[in-house]
Amino acid sequence: MRRTGQTILAVREVNFTVGEGDFVAIVGPSGSGKTTILNAIAGLLAPTSGCIVLDGREVVAPGRDRAMVFQTPSLLPWRTVIANVAYGLELHGYRRPEAAARARSYVELVGLGGFAESYPHELSGGMQQRANLARALAVQPRVLLFDEPLSALDAQTREHMQGELQRIWLQSRTTTVYVTHQISEALFLADRVIVMTPSPGRIKEVLPISFPRPRPLRLQRSEPFRQLEDRVWGLLEAAGGLGEAAETSPERMVHG
Questions:
Q1: Which of 11, 9, 13, 37 is nearest to 25 (CA)?
Q2: Are the C-beta atoms of 115 and 126 separated by less than 8 Å?
Q3: Exposure b/e, 108-147, CB count within 10 A at least 16 = b
Q4: In 10 A of CB 65, how many CB atoms?
């Protein structure tokens, strides 16, 4: 930490592989290193030991082969939806007309075709996050990284967006690493869920998720799903990663 001069070990001996087209989610308490891992994959943070390899090359900096979707959409308020989605393409050297033409298909993909000429302030939070996702997809990254993308939404919108994320991913099949505090969200969306321990974060277990796709939202209220959710909570409890507030949370979310 710069203010105190202390060095904090965020994660230790974390080793996992994400195959092409996989959807991998990471869950764990606050301070378990989830976002640190994501930032390292993005090239925003250099590991102090070990390395991250993408397509046989070590990741040493951000690159156009990776795109990050953050908690807040961070759309440019003076640009329309289509112009926001085209912005990343413009940064990669596309002329504005070509960028807009390429962006339009991604605006349609995320279900915002009727709002292409709307400005961010005219959209709901969920619609803004859809535009944010379209902007990330438009640059056609090899890996899509999500850092709590639905955390700012109300419960009903969040569940709806989980269904939309699944639909979009099934069409794009972009390799995805997804960080979330909500266990049910991870289990619903992912092919595998990585369960982390408290700081310094280690991998407690990697759970394969075998529910067939497409997965209906009602799956989250089925007994097999609840049993798997309870298993993840058991792993977190065994790792000492749950506080009193988390154990009694009606939304079943992990907090430090």
A1: 37
A2: no
A3: ebbebeebbeebbeebebbbbbbbbbbbbbbbbbebbbbb
A4: 16
User: Hey, what CATH topology would domain 8-65+143-256 get?
Assistant: Rossmann fold (3.40.50)
- As to burial, measured by CB atoms within 10 angstroms (0-12 exposed, 13-18 middle, 19+ buried), residue 3 is exposed
pLDDT at 250: 41
239-to-28, 204, 218, 232, 234 alpha-carbon distances in Å: 10, 7, 30, 11, 9
Q: Tens of pLDDT along 108-126?
A: 999 999 999 999 999 999 9
Amino acid (one-letter) located at 248: T
Instruction: Report the Cα 219 to chain-centroid distance in Å.
Output: 20
Q: What is the mean pLDDT of residues 17-46?
A: 91
Domain layout of the chain by residue ranges: 8-65+143-256, 76-140
Alpha helices in 174-253 (DSSP H): 183-189, 223-238, 244-247
d(Cα 33, Cα 36) in Å, to the nearest integer? 5
Summarize the confidence of residues 144-167 as an average pLDDT.
93
Instruction: Say which amino acid occupies 68.
Output: M
Does the model's pTM come out above 0.85? yes
Q: How far apart are CA 230 and CA 121, in angstroms?
A: 39
Helix then strand count (H, E) for the chain reads: 8, 8
Q: Determine the pLDDT at residue 209.
A: 97
Q: Is-contact 5 193, C-beta < 8 A? A: no
Q: What is the pLDDT of residue 11?
A: 73
